[in-house]
# Entry
Amino acid sequence: MEDAIKKIVTTFLQSSRGKENLDSKSFQKMVSSNLGTIMENAQDKEAVDKVMGDLDSNNDGEVDFTEFIILVGALTVACNDFFLEYNEKQEKK
Amino acid sequence: MEDAIKKIVTTFLQSSRGKENLDSKSFQKMVSSNLGTIMENAQDKEAVDKVMGDLDSNNDGEVDFTEFIILVGALTVACNDFFLEYNEKQEKK
# Structure
């Protein structure tokens, strides 16, 4: 799991090209190239802009690392919920 | 990064042996076998019990998935901070 944590850190660093925050363009690119399967509408600019707006709690027009982790956490919980539902359906068959 | 998210989900499922929560024993084992490098005192029962107490926001004596994700998020932010500090020191040399 430590490799997973490091992967999340390096994904942010690569996407932000070493800067501390992701601007709109780099956030779009990070989502479309890294979250295309887990996130619905990952290729839809408007939908991704909406997600960015929701994450940008300090309204600076950018996503910092802590705001990014909230997205990763929410996706991980959603992935877990999907997994539990899938297992439940399999058991009912 | 999607593999990283899946790894976090499967680590919880394996540690909880398919149950919805981690009890004290399975939380200890999850920490010692998965977070031994990133987390200080990962092998110290008392220290890990303290972390568990801090995470257990609904005080049911167990750690559910959402509480687990808060730990993973905090460790990821700490890992990123460490990385940024390390880079800054390298640049000053």
Remarks:
- The mean pLDDT of chain A is 93.
- The domain at 1-91 of chain A is CATH 1.10.238.10 (Recoverin; domain 1).
